[in-house]
Write a structure and sequence with these properties.
Family: Belongs to the DinB family.
Number of domains: 1
Pfam families: DinB
Strand content: 5-15%
Number of strands: 2
Largest sheet: 2 strands, antiparallel
Distance between the termini: 21 Å
Organism: Stenotrophomonas mori
Helix content: 55-70%
Structural class: mainly alpha
Shape: flat
InterPro entries: DinB, DinB/YfiT-like
Strand order of the largest sheet: 1-2
Protein name: DinB family protein
CATH class: Mainly Alpha
Order of helices and strands: HHHHEEHH
Length: 177
């Protein structure tokens, strides 16, 4: 069954486009930090990006009913920024494709899983996707503080900026068809 315009699923598809856009802006800002002068800010940003990537991989496995690819939501060694950026781009691409192929029936289907802390969980696929969006937003906000400490302007990555930047006709009061 195709996604109905105006449905929660259709809005989620748009929200994942926003997430990709916002993550690219965040990654560009983190790349602009002088790592020699502000090593703590870069380390914190990398840790947050690593956490986002690991959590997204864990939930991807849960959506696919596959084994957990990681035992935890953080790792002792944090990959280089370029590696994290690649993982996050790949993750965003995968989630967008997954969401686009999801049927209405699958959207509300429960997914039972085990969290990294060993506790059981159950969420619908739609709830998992909402969590992925919300989780990344939370951690991009934390990265914004690290950017402030390093003197790098953090990007305005709100949904309103995204909508008006990617659909400039809205400035003239015209909604997309």
């Amino acid at each position: 069954m195709p996604v109905a315009a105006g449905s929660g699923q259709a809005l989620c598809i748009d929200a994942f486009a926003y997430k990709r856009w916002a993550m690219q802006r965040t990654l560009a800002a983190v790349h602009a930090v002088d790592a020699q002068a502000f090593p703590a800010s870069v380390a914190f940003a990398r840790q947050q990006l690593n956490h986002i990537a690991l959590v997204e991989a864990l939930f991807r496995a849960r959506l696919l009913d596959a084994p957990a690819p990681h035992a935890a939501t953080n790792s002792a060694e944090v990959p280089a920024l370029a590696v994290l950026a690649e993982r996050l781009v790949d993750s965003d691409r995968w989630y967008a494709g997954y969401l686009a192929a999801l049927t209405t029936a699958q959207w509300d289907a429960p997914v039972r899983f085990r969290f990294a802390d060993g506790r059981d969980g159950c969420m619908t696929r739609g709830e998992i996707l909402f969590h992925i969006l919300n989780h990344a937003t939370y951690h991009r906000g934390a990265i914004g503080h690290a950017l402030d400490l390093a003197g790098v302007a953090h990007p305005a990555d709100t949904y309103t900026v995204f909508v008006h930047e990617t659909q400039p006709q809205r400035r003239g009061g015209v909604l997309p068809a």
